[in-house]
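Crash report, auto-generated. Payload:
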Amino acid sequence: MENTKILEINNLHVQYITEEETVNAVNGVSLSICKGESLGLVGETGAGKTTTALSIMQLVPYPPGIITDGEIIFEGKDLIFNTERENQEMRGNGISMIFQDPMTSLNPIMTIGEQLLEVVLTHKKVTREEGKRQVIELLKTVGVKEDRYNDYPHQFSGGMKQRVVITMALLCNPKLLIADEPTTALDVTIQAQVLDIISDLQVKFNMSMILITHDLGVVAETCDKVAIMYAGEIIEAGTVEDVYTVAKHPYTRGLFESIPKLDDKNEKLVPISGSTPNAVDLPSGCYFHPRCKYKQEICERESPTLKGEGHQYKCHFSLFEKEELG
Amino acid sequence: MKPLVEIKNLKKYFTVPNGYLHAVDNLSFSIPEGETLGIVGESGCGKSTLGRVILRLHEPTSGQIVYDGMDITTFNDEEMRKMRKHMQIIFQDPYASLNPRFTVSQIIEEPLKLHKIYSNDKERKKRVEDLMEYVGLSKRAYNLYPHEFDGGRRQRVVIARALSVNPKFIVCDEPVSALDVSVQAQILNLMIELQEKLGLTYIFISHDLSVVKHISTNIGVMYLGQMIEKAPKNEMFKKPLHPYTIALLSAIPSINIREKKKKIILKGEIGSPINPKAGCRFSLRCPFAVEQCVSCDPELIEVEKNHFVSCFRYKEVIDGTLKYETK
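Recovered output after restart:
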């Protein structure tokens, strides 16, 4: 793995502003990803994972969404100041995205061949024949047979559709792939097939990848690094190895304890009490304090800063202190 | 323990334009009182239909459903209505299964009114309050509407409603699938607690194998309308015998980074349940399929105590001569 940063996000803030309310979707996210690396972005519903991804793609719907602060540096250039034309150039060629629901990301009245060819012809200076050849070649790589080129999306099953969407995202050899819950709508045996394809292609094309998911298992099997999001912040980040071995933030630990394990012990689950905060009205201090079992007076008052090198976490207390407090 | 629910040769075929969709195809099993039978399988394998047919929310095409010694398939509407006090269902989506115009208390007391369980309002109100406390809803929630709650609390309301008539048997159809993991654990714990306290019997339908493993006594694996393997949960995870179960279990993404599992990647996808051909339904994807698998139907047989499997080649799986190649 080379150590050049391909994407760097600093202090990103995104809000959705309407007349009635302001939703604080992303509240100061910083992350970076190197060439060839895969990062798992994990969090529950409403944690700001998808908004972060849309910000990178410069696709936050405006209005009501607006990036209020921060920088998104891709290959040395801040995307926020890009013109729409530059953005179009960047999407597909530089950064590509796979969305959660393959049913809604394909055009139902175009054959998949036409849709895929359109991508190639828009971004590359090639002839129709050459474009078609490239499309068919990549379709074969992801396991879609050539004779399906003229089929419509509704003729494909969910897993097959997702393969078509993956093909679409990879046609222009992007340097960074953002996969937003690419397997959530799929069954577990099909999920295994699709994750296998994504991982293979990532290595083959030496792409960087951000995999957005709520499934910690999927991240463990596909990613090098992981970042855990809560209420629009990254509250813990590091290598999968570090975070999964010793989680340092109480929320991360809570997540691991709430997942039923597959061993024989059948231990009782330890849920996190309460539920995720409303992004319109976030708690004071540390956003997690109302649900935290180690809560102290300072947690209600002050927002913690990100601590640690490499393995970072956002909590006032270190793990050992927490054990004593608990 | 005597079985509370017993299913015999249950079939449910839906008529579709080009034939019959075999949603539930000849299932037979029983659930002892106080136990949980987990049903797993991929989308379209008929697990939800099974849950509904058992409660006769869909009329079975043929077969028997015996509840507490009574064959309820012979019951008329009036008898069935009385039966529903004993058998309840919890649906997947707590956003769709609650009437948005009813307050929480109205929702919970509705079944009590329908079944005329309390003659006076005061007793009924007391019962609703008790139920709310049971499932961990605060008194403050009494006059609130469903939209004022998040998914987890809504599912608590659904559970309280199901429990209101004191059922013995509950079909839980993906009750935690719409919830985030931190909340999912709260609801799972609640359901286990209630089962212990009230001696409930569950059918727990889910596509999430780790959740099913956590809550079930026995697990049944369904594939295209049929049950292909059934075993006590630990046995199932330690020694799966059907090639599909083996592949399915290996495909679960694990959070244990110490033990990297060997994944089996199945080729192809679940087939169509419309007019299925003879032979084992899994034979199209099964790398071990032989002539016999395509031409004859395997039967679900008990190969070890409580461990049922429907595969012609299970003996070779047991002595380890039949193995998947893994990557």
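Post-recovery validation: Chain A has two domains: 5-94+172-325, 107-171.
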